[in-house]
Amino acid sequence: MNNEKNGPIIRIVNALMKVESHEIKATVLSFAFLFMLMLSYNILKPVRDAMASDWSDPEVATLWTINFFFSAIAVSVYGLAISRFRFKYLVPGVYAFFAVSFLAFYIGTASVEDAVLIRKSFYVWVSVFSLFHISVFWSLMSDVFTKTQAPRLFAFIASGASIGTLAGTSIPLFLAAKLGTPNLMLIAAAVLVAIIPALSYLQRLKVTELGNENQQVNLNERQAIGGNPFSGFTLFLRDPYLLGIAVFILLYTSVGSFVYFELKNLLASYTSAERESIWAGINGTINVIAIVTAWFATGRITTSLGLAKTLALVPVLVAVGLLIVAVNPIIAAIIAAQIILKGGNYSITRPGREVLYTVVDRETRFKAKPVIDIVVYRGGDTLSGWAFAGLTTGLGLGLGAVAAVGAIIALVWGVIGVYLGRRFIGTDPPAKTAASQSAR
C-alpha cells in the first residue's frame, strides 16, 4: 500500500508504530471503537460519582459490596448467554443491552419522584459496566489480531481509552448544567448504539485485510460457543496460565489500593479545593503520559524487550517509587508513584496483559476472561482495601512502612509478569487447554 495515497490519519498511525499496511484500517477502527466505549463510560462516571455524595459512608460501602456480588452474577449470566446464543449476536448484543439499560434508567429517573432506589441501582450498574464493556472489547481484540500482531498494535489501540476518557469527562464538565443528568444517560446510550455497526465491518477486515480467518472467533458464525454457563469460573481455576493472569491482576489492584490510600492519607491536611486540583492534575497527567507512551514507545518496548520484561517494567518502576516513599513519605513521591502506576498500566501493562489472551481458545476468551477481569478485579479491590486498613489501623504501621510492603507486592507483581511473558512465548495459538475441555 502506498503511504502517499493514504489519508492523514492512516499516515500518522503508520508513522507512530510498527504497523503493516494491511493492518492499518483494522487498527484505526479498533482504536475508534475503544474511544467510543470510554467516551460513553466517562459521560456516566461523573453522574455515578456525584450520586455518592448524597449517601453516608456505610451506604456507599454497602453498594461496593453489592457491586462485587452483582458482578459475579452478571458474569455468570454472560456465561449463560455465550453458551446459548449465536455468537454472531453476542458482542453486539452486550452493547445493545447496556444501551437499553441506560435508556431504562433515564425513563426511571425522569418518571419517579423519589428515585433513591433507582439512583443506587444506577450506581452499582455503572460500576459493573465500567469493567464489563472493556473486558468484552479486549476479548474481541484477542480474536481479531494474532499473537504476533498484538504486541505491536495493542498499545496504540489502548490509547483510545485515554483519549476517550479525556473527551468523555469534558462533556459532563461543560454540559451537565445545561443538559441535566438524565440526558447524559441518553447520550451515553446513543454512543453505545453507534458502535454496533462497526463490529461487522471489523469482522470483514479481519478476514479480508488482516487475513486472520483462522483465528478462533468469527462474528458471522451462527453457532453459540456452547459449554457450561459457569465454566468461566472453573476454566481459570484449573489452568496455571489463567491463574497467573488472575494473580497478576490481584497484585495490580493491591498495589493500586496501597498507592491510593497512601495518597489519600497524605492529602488529609489539604483543603477540599486543593485535593480536587491535585487529583485533577494527577488524572490529566496520567492520561497524557499514557497517550504519548502508547503512541511513541510501547510497541517498540514490547518488540525490543519481549513480553516478559514488558510486563515486569511498570511493577519494577512502581516498586522503586514506593521504596522512595518508604524512605521519605512526601506527597511528591507518592504522586509520582500513582502517575507511573496508572499511566504505565494504561499504556504498557494493560495492552501487554491483553496480548496474553491471544494464545487461548474461544471459550476461555469469552468466559474465563470476564471472570478474571471483573470478579477477580473487584475482589482484589475489596481485599486490598481491608489489608491496608489492617496494616494502618490494626497494626499501627506508618506510611513509610506500608509503602515498603507495597514495594514488595510490586516486585512480586513483576515476577508474575515475567512468568506470564515466558509462558506466552512458549505457547502456540490456539491453546485448547485440558481445563477448557473438562469445563464443558
Structure overview:
With 440 residues, the protein is mainly α. The protein has a single domain (3-438), classed as Growth Hormone, Chain: A (Up-down Bundle). It has 15 helices and no strands. Helix 4 packs antiparallel against helix 5 (116-144). The termini are far apart.
What is the succession of H and E elements? Answer: HHHHHHHHHHHHHHH
Helix tally equals: 15
Strand residues, percent: under 5%
End-to-end CA span? 44 Å
Number of strands: 0
* CATH arch. level architecture: Up-down Bundle
Stretches with pLDDT under 50, minimum 5 residues: 216-224, 430-440
What class, by secondary structure content? mainly alpha
CATH topology type: Growth Hormone, Chain: A
Mean pLDDT: 81
Largest β-sheet summary: none
Q: What is the CA-atom radius of gyration, in angstroms? A: 21 Å
How many discrete domains? 1
Mind telling me the CATH superfamily name? MFS general substrate transporter like domains
Helix content, binned percent:
over 70%
Name the CATH class. Answer: Mainly Alpha
Basic shape: globular
Features:
440 residues, mainly alpha, 15 helices
In short:
By secondary structure, this protein is mainly α. 81% of the residues lie in helices and 0% in strands.
